[in-house]
Each structure stands twice: as structure tokens, then as C-alpha cells.
């Protein structure tokens, strides 16, 4: 059939046939996958809306001294840090639930490369979200115009903590997605497990471990002040339990599971 | 070129694929036939590097699939037309893969035309696709990287008769340009008209392999006589194993000449004698892939 023949000679220019797709390319693809499905698109838009809404509400309700640039940045980050992990979960679990892993791993048989690309995409989106939060907070600060000391101050340490906070919550989502490979349980347990742990810590005997392993205790100070060495150690311990361990288990599953 | 070398795979103690060997040469279409659960999909998954064989080798284009630098540009795979994100638009699904393998995105629109998904279909989310539309999208996806080899699992499933005819032409054309095609089916008539070679698998083992003519050569002779009882007696007298054919007459496991001699010896008038043809192939496929209990 001549029509077929002609169409099969469509442009294929680009890389030559035997060049491995680079990590930058794969990371770009993963970023695209976060927004090109219906769920992904609305989740991102909803997230952006919430970030703005939270700042608007704070401008209306909060006292002047709580409307500094830094305060508003953390307020804008709050919904993002809750929703981004869900994007992270879906970035991995949907490959299984929608079975697109068949395509992804057929095109990139080395699964560690796919994982690296997803991690890279998560880091980039975290930073984009942080930049968005900074922009929203800046507009909010101009509008609110609180004439208090340090209205615009943002110590580099605090910015660093914001980066750590955002990226680790995103990666925790990825890790839970990889650990369960199904969306619903991953999202539910992601939301419940650390909280359930916080509940356990009300038992006196568990109070000390809780101080080291409970998100609410160890990570929230990041939004409040520059962490001390001990506080960093606690935050690190918590992250090892809730991010690193699930990430290791998850990576093992993604690499070894039949698709 | 595709080569399955003694591929073997077990799941939970059950051997799903057992010492399966065959080759698909460039320029040919090979039909991989077997009942559901015979081990077709598992074999194709091992060839595509998605599943690790317990033993044996899956060779694609001279090496392991997973060692291909950019496999999508060499091998087009369609293992499951349903394996697309429901919430992604058809065109976008192709764009994502094009980006992954470094294919010019302009090729996507050409391929959508080629497989008969128009603009409105391409804009729809895959959730709203019929099975036939998913197969078309899957075929476009397999062709996206301009590959030399196609591995397709039940690609005709869900296609209407015009769709099947279109697919046959597409794959024939692909093979005629030097490509290697391996496609599986559980229905003989889907691949019979298209495949140069057939590989029949049953309960994890290859039970027959060859061109249509080669398989038919072993499928016996069809003989028809007005007086069936007399013909039967003549065949029995000559010790020729025969079974009733679907549309009358008998299929005899013997050369035409021997059957003719038997009829002559029995003094039976024969109205037709010849290779068993399509009905023989169908019977062969049916016999070969019969459930084990039925054979025993």
C-alpha cells in the first residue's frame, strides 16, 4: 500500500537510533507526565489555587507581625507540601495501576534510570513550587505592607530548610508510591502512618522515640526557626525512617517487580 | 531478527514457558498461535526484556533487548493495548513516548492518520477509547520509533473486519520492507492469511512450527466420496487412519496417492481428493491445542 509506505517515511529526525535517551530527556518526560493527565493537571491547578487562597486568608486574618515575607512563604508552602506528595505517589503508582510501566520499561529497560528521572523531576517541581511560593508571598507582602522589623528578611538557612522541607515531602510521596505500587493504599498510608505514630507517642513510654521520629515534632520547627544541631539530628532521623527506608524498599520493588 | 533460544519460565512452581525456541527472520511475519494461557504473552515479555527467563536466551537484533541503547527506535512493542493512562489524551500518549525515544513529534500526527485515529479521536482521553481504538493507538505507538522489529500481542483483538484487513496490509508492508514481525493470536483465522510462518504453542511448549504449506503437508489428505460408508471401509481395509472432516468426507493421515490407491482397491467412487487445506489447518490447530485432559 503506497499510502502506508509514504507515511512510514515520516520524519524521525532527532537522535540517531542507537543513542541512549539521556537523563535530562527522561526527567523532562517525567515532568510532563505530572501534568498531562487529567488528575495530574487538576491536582497542580488545585495546588496553585490553594497556595494563593491560603496567603489571601492569612492577609485577611493574621496580625501584622505574622504577615512578613517569610511567614507568607511558609503559609503558601503548606498546601503544596501536602499535595505534592500525592503527585509523587501517583508519579510511580499510576505506572502500575494504569499499566504504563509496560511502555516505560520497554522504552527504558534500565529501571534505575526511570527512577532517577522521576526523582529528578520531583526535585525540579519542588523547587518550582518553592519559587512559586516565594512569588506569591512577595505579592502578599507588598499588598499587606506590614511595617514591622524584618518584613522582607529571609535568612539563607530558612530558605535552605524550605528546600529540604519541600523536597523531602515530595520524595516521601514517591517512596510511598514505590513501596505500595497502588495509588489508594500509598496515599492513605502516607497520610496516616506518621500521624498514627504521633498518636502512639502520647503513650509515655514512647515519648522519647517520638521526639526523634514524629514528623510533627521534628519537621515542623523547620518553618519556625533556624534548626539547632540536635534538631537537625532529629529531623534527619525522622527523614531516615519516613523517607529513606520507604525509598529503599520502594526502589527495590520497582526494579524487581514484574510489570 | 528475533530469536527465542530455549526460553523457560516458571511462576510459582508452574512452568509457563518450557524450552521454547523459534526464529523470526527479517522480511517475514510470524504468527505465534496458542490458546489463552498457553504461554504466548510470557514468551513475548521475555523477548521484550520485561521478564527475565529462568533459562534460555531472548535475542533481538543480535543481542539482549535490554542492551539496546534506545530500544524504542529498534523494536516496536504492543503487549497490551489497555496499558495506557486513562486520563491521558491519545495524541499526548504518543507524544510522551516520542519524547522519550527522541523521535520528531511531527511523526505522531502522521501515525495517528496512518492508524485511522482522526483529530477528534486523538484529542479524546484514552478512557473513552473502544478496544479497537486502543489497538490502533497501540499500533501507532509500536511504529513510533520507526523500528525494524515488531512484537505484538493479540493486536487484532477488538478490531473490526476492516480494521483487521487494514492491519494485515500494514504488517505485510512492514515485513516487505525488511522488517521482522512477531504477532500472537489465539485465533487461527486472524493470522493464517498474513503470517509467512506459524509457531504453535500449547501448555508452554512449541507443538508445531513452519510455513502454512509445511504445516498443511502434515495435516493430511481430504477425501470425499458420495458413499461415505464404502469409503470408510476402503480406508480401514488399507489401514489408513482417517477421521471425519467438518464438511463431509474424511481427513486421512496419508499421501494423496495412498488414499487414491485405497479407494481404487475398495472400488469406491471418489468425488474429491486433495490436500486438506484450511479445514485441515484449523483441525490441526484445534488438535494441537486441545486441553491435555481431552487428549488423554
Question: Keywords for this structure?
Answer:
heterodimer, A: mainly alpha, 11 helices, 76% helix, B: alpha/beta, Rossmann fold, 6-stranded mixed sheet, 4-stranded antiparallel sheet, 12 helices
Overview of the molecule:
The complex is a heterodimer of chains A (259) and B (296). The mean pLDDT of chain A is 89. Helix content of chain A is 76%, strand content 0%. The longest helix of chain A is centred in the middle third of the chain and has 34 residues, at 111-144. Chain A starts with a helix and ends with a helix. Chain A has 259 residues and is an all-alpha fold. With 296 residues, chain B is of the alpha/beta class. Chain B folds into two domains: 2-211, P-loop containing nucleotide triphosphate hydrolases (Rossmann fold, 3-Layer(aba) Sandwich), CATH 3.40.50; 220-275, Alpha-Beta Plaits, CATH 3.30.70. Chain B has helices at 40-47, 90-101, 106-114, 119-123, 131-143, 161-176, 188-192, 212-217, 228-237, 256-266, 277-288, 292-295, and strands spanning 2-11, 14-24, 29-33, 55-60, 75-78, 149-152, 180-185, 197-202, 205-211, 221-224, 242-244, 250-252, 272-275. At the A-B interface, helix 1, helix 2, helix 3 and helix 5 of A face helix 2, helix 3 and helix 6 of B.
Second rung of CATH, namely the architecture of the largest domain in chain B: 3-Layer(aba) Sandwich
State Rg of chain B: 22 Å
Mean of all residue-level pLDDT scores of chain A: 89
Structural class call of chain A reads: mainly alpha
Order of helices and strands of chain A: HHHHHHHHHHH
CATH topology of the largest domain in chain B, by name, is Rossmann fold
Number of helices of chain B: 12
Q: Give the amount of beta strand of chain A, in percent.
A: under 5%
Number-wise, the strands of chain B total 13
Taking strands numbered 1, 2, ... along the chain, how are they ordered across the largest sheet of chain B? 5-6-7-3-8-9
Strand composition percent of chain B? 15-25%
Quaternary class: heterodimer
Measured between the Cα atoms of the first and last residue of chain B, the distance is 37 Å
Largest sheet of chain A: none
Fraction of residues in H or I helices of chain A? over 70%
Largest interface (CB < 8 Å):
A-B, 44 and 49 residues
Computed over alpha carbons, the radius of gyration of chain A is 21 Å
The CATH superfamily of the largest domain in chain B is identified as P-loop containing nucleotide triphosphate hydrolases
Amino acid at each position: 500500500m503506497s499510502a502506508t509506505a509514504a507515511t512510514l517515511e515520516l520524519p524521525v529526525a532527532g537522535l540517531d537510533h542507537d543513542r541512549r535517551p539521556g537523563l535530562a530527556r527522561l526527567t523532562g518526560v517525567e515532568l510532563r507526565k505530572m501534568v498531562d493527565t487529567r488528575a495530574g493537571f487538576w491536582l497542580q491547578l488545585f495546588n496553585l489555587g490553594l497556595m494563593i487562597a491560603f496567603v489571601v486568608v492569612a492577609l485577611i486574618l493574621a496580625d501584622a507581625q505574622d504577615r512578613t515575607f517569610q511567614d507568607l512563604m511558609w503559609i503558601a508552602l503548606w498546601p503544596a507540601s501536602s499535595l505534592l506528595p500525592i503527585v509523587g505517589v501517583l508519579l510511580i503508582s499510576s505506572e502500575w495501576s494504569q499499566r504504563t510501566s509496560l511502555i516505560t520499561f520497554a522504552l527504558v529497560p534500565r529501571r534505575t534510570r526511570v527512577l532517577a528521572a522521576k526523582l529528578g523531576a520531583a526535585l525540579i517541581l519542588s523547587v518550582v513550587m518553592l519559587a512559586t511560593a516565594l512569588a506569591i508571598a512577595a505579592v502578599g507582602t507588598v499588598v499587606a505592607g506590614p511595617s514591622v522589623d524584618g518584613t522582607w528578611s529571609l535568612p539563607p538557612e530558612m530558605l535552605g530548610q524550605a528546600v529540604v522541607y519541600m523536597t523531602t515531602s515530595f520524595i516521601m510521596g514517591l517512596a510511598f508510591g514505590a513501596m505500595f505500587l497502588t495509588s489508594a493504599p500509598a496515599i492513605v498510608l502516607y497520610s496516616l502512618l506518621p500521624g498514627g505514630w504521633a498518636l502512639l507517642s502520647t503513650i509515655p513510654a514512647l515519648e522519647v522515640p517520638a521526639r526523634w521520629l514524629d514528623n510533627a515534632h521534628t519537621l515542623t520547627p523547620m518553618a519556625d526557626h533556624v534548626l539547632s544541631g540536635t534538631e537537625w539530628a532529629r529531623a534527619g532521623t525522622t527523614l531516615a525512617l519516613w523517607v529513606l527506608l520507604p525509598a529503599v524498599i520502594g526502589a527495590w520493588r520497582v526494579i524487581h517487580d514484574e510489570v | 531478527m528475533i530469536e527465542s533460544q530455549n526460553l523457560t519460565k516458571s511462576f510459582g512452581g508452574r512452568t509457563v514457558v518450557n524450552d521454547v525456541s523459534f526464529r523470526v527472520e527479517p522480511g517475514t511475519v510470524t504468527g505465534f498461535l496458542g490458546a489463552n494461557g498457553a504461554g504466548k504473552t510470557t514468551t513475548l515479555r521475555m523477548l521484550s526484556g520485561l521478564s527475565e527467563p529462568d533459562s534460555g536466551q531472548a535475542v533481538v537484533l543480535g543481542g539482549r533487548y535490554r542492551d539496546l541503547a534506545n530500544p524504542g527506535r529498534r523494536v516496536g512493542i504492543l503487549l497490551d493495548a489497555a496499558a495506557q493512562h486513562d486520563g491521558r489524551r491519545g495524541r499526548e500518549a504518543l507524544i510522551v513516548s516520542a519524547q522519550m525515544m527522541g523521535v520528531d513529534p511531527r511523526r505522531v500526527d502522521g501515525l495517528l492518520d496512518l492508524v485511522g485515529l482522526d483529530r477528534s479521536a486523538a484529542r479524546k482521553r484514552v478512557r473513552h477509547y473502544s478496544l479497537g481504538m486502543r489497538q490502533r493507538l497501540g499500533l501507532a505507538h509500536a511504529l513510533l520509533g520507526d523500528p525494524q522489529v515488531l512484537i505484538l500481542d493479540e493486536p487484532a483483538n477488538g478490531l473490526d473486519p476492516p480494521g483487521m484487513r487494514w492491519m494485515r496490509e500494514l504488517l505485510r508492508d512492514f515485513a516487505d520492507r525488511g522488517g521482522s514481525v512477531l504477532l500472537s493470536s489465539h485465533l487461527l483465522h486472524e493470522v493464517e492469511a498474513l503470517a509467512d510462518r506459524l509457531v504453535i504453542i500449547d501448555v508452554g511448549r512449541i507443538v508445531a512450527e513452519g510455513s502454512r504449506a509445511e504445516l498443511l503437508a502434515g495435516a493430511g489428505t481430504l477425501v470425499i466420496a458420495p458413499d461415505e460408508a464404502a469409503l470408510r471401509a476402503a480406508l480401514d481395509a488399507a489401514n489408513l487412519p482417517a477421521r471425519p472432516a467438518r464438511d463431509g468426507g474424511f481427513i486421512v493421515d496419508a499421501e494423496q496417492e495412498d488414499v487414491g490407491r485405497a479407494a481404487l482397491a475398495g472400488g469406491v467412487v471418489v468425488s474429491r481428493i486433495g490436500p486438506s487445506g484450511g479445514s485441515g489447518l484449523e483441525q490441526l490447530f484445534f488438535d494441537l491445542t486441545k486441553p491435555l485432559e481431552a487428549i488423554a
